Amino acid sequence: MRAKDIMAPGCGTPHIKPFRNVGEDMPVVNVLPRLLDSPDGKLGVKEAGELVGVIDRDSLLDGIGRMIAARDDCSVITVECSPADYSASRIAHAVEDTDAHLVDLWSVPSDGGRMRVTLRVRRDDPSSTVHSLERYGYDVVSAYGNDYGDSDMAAMRLLELKTLMNV
User: Fold this and answer.
1) 96-115 residue pLDDT tens
2) Please, how many CA atoms are within 13 Å of residue 88, restricted to the half-sphere of its CB?
3) I need a labelling partner for 7 at 20 to 30 A (CA). Which of 30, 31, 107, 148 fits?
């Protein structure tokens, strides 16, 4: 995704100063730090030397939101490892060993010189993927799945079913 994909065309362009402009083809990941450093929270977008639009925090958030696919069938797992042990392909292999699909992977440095990696995995219950990641030597910091909140309800329904079957 590029700057031209997230700009609001023509909005407020006369007020943008030249030192706060970006090219239309600048990747969004490069736009974000420049926008955060901008005093008024706006950047101009130039095409062929001419100002064609503005990027503000709202348009950037909209653009990043479109980059992340909405999925209800995903679990979120966060792992930590040393930078020397970080390998996106190795993490993907650990996920695929559980017949799950890796939807997203974000990595950032964390405290103590370690890497923190957040994964979205296409699986309602992340426990098998968590065990696989641990077997590969990754420290699982947190795991959130869609079925955790419903486990009490499912147990109650099973008890009700057993009661009905005994009648």
Assistant:
1) 999 999 998 989 988 788 99
2) 10
3) 107
